[in-house]
What we know:
It contains 4 helices and 6 strands, in the order ββααβββαβα. The protein has 146 residues and is an alpha+beta fold. Strands 1-2-3-4-5-6 form a 6-stranded mixed beta sheet, sandwiched between helices. Strand 5, helix 3 (91-99) and strand 6 form a beta-alpha-beta unit. The mean pLDDT is 94.
Amino acid sequence: MDLFEIKDGELLLSTNKGLLNMDLIHSYLTQSYWSLGISKELVSKAVQNSLAVGLFKSGKQIGFCRLITDYSTFAYLADVFISEEEKGKSYGQFLMINIRKHPMLQSLRRWLLATKDAHLLYKKSGWQLLEKPEYFMEIVQEDPYK
């Protein structure tokens, strides 16, 4: 249902969960500021229950993100990363631009994400600060994985 791929030279963006390197994804996420210490079981559950997108270069996974979506009106972008050795090569921008081409996401009226330090990357691919932040509310549970 949600299989989608884009090839560009040695790059492959794919929603095929069978291609994902779960050890790489868990390793990165457990060290990221937003999911310190997350268990591999929770990462696997999150991947299985969302639209997971891998970015591969010459067959090796170099990036990842996932969308929590209803495929109709809304998507939340989460867990975005490009491997350390591949950062600075516009692969993040490639990932952000091309996930929006997924045919099942064309009717979405709102995409959201949260970031502490990657605003410039996202801005380059069309994201902007909240137009009306006063409309949004949140519940934050600090350190849920400890």
